[in-house]
């Protein structure tokens, strides 16, 4: 795809947003709405996780039924003939990852039948993304990519009318403001979700404020990011007693008078009572029932047969009007009321989510940090590959490899994938898919060498494991070149490369033929321990590079004949020499960071950084039986335990390009703090794990910065890598909080940055993956970096979050 194609694509999307508006709501005007009655919009739906207890493949095929009886292909097989049987019946579908797979297996006859149902407005696609993405652990870039993948399929398959009008995030465990902003910018007219804090929900029910206008970007985009948003009344399941799933215990509608269990009157009374009860909490005379749940409709006839009867017997003689509908039609009729006024006051998000006093879903902000880090790395890699594919042109150089990585990255954004809330075998499956996609995405092996010449003049090798100092090419060769690509729209200068090598001295030549300053550093013991036998490099070659915007630079590297020696001393020290911008001082007793000085602005911050662990609750205290687990963070106390007790052992490495402090807190927690010449920040590289288990205690590991700033209970976190939200300890912006978990109830998702500040100073921590973070005391900032538990939290995973790695 060339640049002009990209521009045309964006223009086409813009046209679609306008052209499909009438197309989308025209169908809603013909619904049998009855003014003056409670109009109950029955929305038949299924919620199909793109991996959770089973892998995405197993969920589609129905395999591994010993874990869960769920097969998405049978849902779609079953629904289609039921919709064809009666024109008033409707069904919505969400997860395009499954629908496209099913669609590709069908013949032309079935394609025609499905398109007819779509044209008749019986089958409607809602949300439209490849998956229903998580909102706490995802980066905005990956959200846009996965939504694009699904929406492109709908557009190519069903035309302009295939564009969904309503967003549907009924299962993610809390909701970000940036997600609402993105949906609004994509042209959605409404957004529905199910999970919100139990205290917040009670307050909204009292005020008839379950539906409102959410301001997704009040300080930046303004009204462009405003979105009609509704919280569902009964989670995303049917009203109590009215589920007609084939294996459900709720009674069907038995309307044959000869039956001893004839129950039409009881079923009608239940429907009327549920309608009247729900209507009390909502504005206008329209309410919505979500008729379905996880992997429902594998036997769709049981649903439609009973809903047909419920409509038939309830509507006559009652002030309740049941009708088949969709979320988009519900939004349309909801907003047709002339006298309705929506609340515009919500500029906050819906984190952290708690469904009970001691059940805060803030553990998954950090769960499975390796997966979270790998997803972020693969996202960055995918953006680079897309750029290189554009630059290099079509086949043979790209080999069509991007499709696989796009699909795997889209699947990984699912709310039980990057969130870390899947079973262990599913986590392995996600990681395997990401790796396979990344391998196919390594188009640069061919494309980089043909950018100028149009021919592959030489072969390039990609080093995927530089994070643990593994690269066979640099380890085994005395002469090699390194090509560095810059995906940014600005020049990058002073970025440092670290290459694993086995020599003692190397020369590096820049693209302009001039020599580059280099530095040799030993591979740390902890890095060597993590990588195991996969690599054998003894040192790292460090040097700065300069790369033009959207360009690349090639550096020639040769092993030198002279032997350079260096000594690393083991000692405690009170001061460290800064590099123009930052000056660090470490405590001689504890080995911890003590002071950070900004030399340019002459600001001094007294700050101590160390590692601690919270003991995970096993549910044996008097307040609640709730345990910590994949979803839930619940420590046994408010004060964490220090990982070291006698101070950390530190090694100071002083060179001309980089200075390092190596800290050893224990045999399973180490850290390297680096200052690079010319850079305005310090780099902290921690290695945590395997978390010890012999004591039988679950551990949730944090790193904490304690400063002398007076922050007045405020701290700040990003929203999906974009805008910043202000947080206040033990406070919620739109409702009064009764805080029952003083630690977990103050944790928020951190996707890229968290900071605290006072009148003159600010301490910011940038993260390389999503984590949970908080400021529990004035001047303090903490991030959870790893977790390991021995009990399940009883929210569905069915196994402990027992990650054994680092």
TrEMBL record:
Task: Report the domain of life of the source organism.
Answer: Eukaryota
Q: Which GO terms describe its biological process?
A: mannose metabolic process
| Necessary cofactors | Zn(2+)
| Family as reported in the entry's similarity comment | Belongs to the glycosyl hydrolase 38 family.
Which SUPFAM superfamilies does the UniProt record give?
A: Families 57/38 glycoside transferase middle domain, Galactose mutarotase-like, Glycoside hydrolase/deacetylase
Signal sequence span is 1-20
EC number(s) on record? 3.2.1.-
Supply the name of the protein.
Answer: Alpha-mannosidase
Question: What InterPro entries has UniProt attached to this entry?
Answer: Gal_mutarotase_sf_dom, Glyco_hydro/deAcase_b/a-brl, Glyco_hydro_38_C, Glyco_hydro_38_cen, Glyco_hydro_38_cen_sf, Glyco_hydro_38_N, Glyco_hydro_38_N_sf, Glyco_hydro_57/38_cen_sf
Concerning PANTHER family, the annotation shows:
ALPHA-MANNOSIDASE (PTHR11607), LYSOSOMAL ALPHA-MANNOSIDASE (PTHR11607:SF3)
* Cofactor binding note of this UniProt entry: Binds 1 zinc ion per subunit.
Q: Which reaction does it catalyse?
A: Hydrolysis of terminal, non-reducing alpha-D-mannose residues in alpha-D-mannosides
Q: What is the lineage of its organism?
A: Eukaryota, Metazoa, Chordata, Cephalochordata, Leptocardii
Q: Where is the Glycoside hydrolase family 38 central domain?
A: 359-434
Molecular function terms in GO for this entry? alpha-mannosidase activity; carbohydrate binding; metal ion binding
List the keywords (alphabetical).
Disulfide bond, Glycoprotein, Glycosidase, Hydrolase, Metal-binding, Signal, Zinc
